Amino acid sequence: MTDLHGVFPYLVSPVDSDGRIRTAVLGRLCDDLIKSGVHGLTPLGSTGEFAYLDATQRSCVVQTTIEAARGRVPVVAGVVSTSTADAVAQARAYERLGAAGILAILEAYFPLVDSGVESYFRAIADAVDIPVVMYTNPQFQRSDLSLDVIARLAGHPRIGYIKDASTNTGRLLSIMNRCGDAIRVFSASAHIPAAVMLIGGVGWMAGPACVIPRQSVELYNLCRAQRWDEALVLQRKLWRVNEAFARYNLAACIKAGLAIQGYDVGDPVPPQAALTADERKAVEAVLRDVS
Fold first, then answer.
1. Whether the Cβ atoms of residue 143 and residue 119 lie closer than 8 Å to each other
2. What's the domain count of the chain?
3. Each residue's pLDDT tens digit, 162-179
4. Residue 82 is assigned to a structural domain of this protein
5. Which of 120, 135, 161, 220 is catalytic?
6. Could you tell me if residue 249 is inside a domain?
7. Which of 10, 120, 161, 163 is catalytic?
8. Which of 47, 127, 137, 166 gives 207 a disulfide partner, CB atoms 3.0 to 4.6 angstroms apart?
9. Active-site residue flag, 135
10. Which of 7, 149, 179, 150 is nearest to 76 (CA)?
11. pTM of the model
């Protein structure tokens, strides 16, 4: 089974005014990211605006990413639904398209008990023969993964990873202590990646890596080499990107950053708003400083 580690940019979903995916733009972005040294690609993460796309658009994003990757790096496709049956169908479809892994995301309109949360992730993992990364983001999810649920799911043969966006680094260490080698932890942009690597993380899945891929890979390599002094100098510099993006809508920031770099990815899907001229200038200044 594919070993997942390193820098996985959360890809944007370029959509035109008619709702069509701009496949040429997405394909070029994927190719350039791979050439920058990233270790994998993640379509339909939070930066990919999965909550604002229909099933056809989502499938097109995943297929375009897989075709652009051409097997050079693993593609871990986001699967999200309020319905277990729908999530299972998505996971199977993306595996057939050639995804190397699944990023399992739970949406919930009504609150769920732990057994419901657990059964959702377990059903996705039962349905495929590729690795499953559990994704948890308590800021946006109605029902979160508790430590008890994570520990039970860690026993599943295909659930070997978690990406946690809680902002609570202590929670990551608790997951590592509780699950040992059964679960490997990816950082989110809400965490400081170098700090997560220091305590035992295997990389990060994050939107900012779309606009600073080369610098993200450099940071990862420094962490892997345990050159912590150099890593922290670079981390302090790059953290300004995370700070800037935390102030605004994430997809709007990443799309604005990519537009500044020459990718015609368009605006966020309505009702989200694009950055204002002043906000765009602030993002441009940060990217200039870290380039």
1. no
2. 1
3. 999 888 999 999 999 999
4. yes
5. 135
6. no
7. 163
8. 47
9. yes
10. 7
11. 0.96
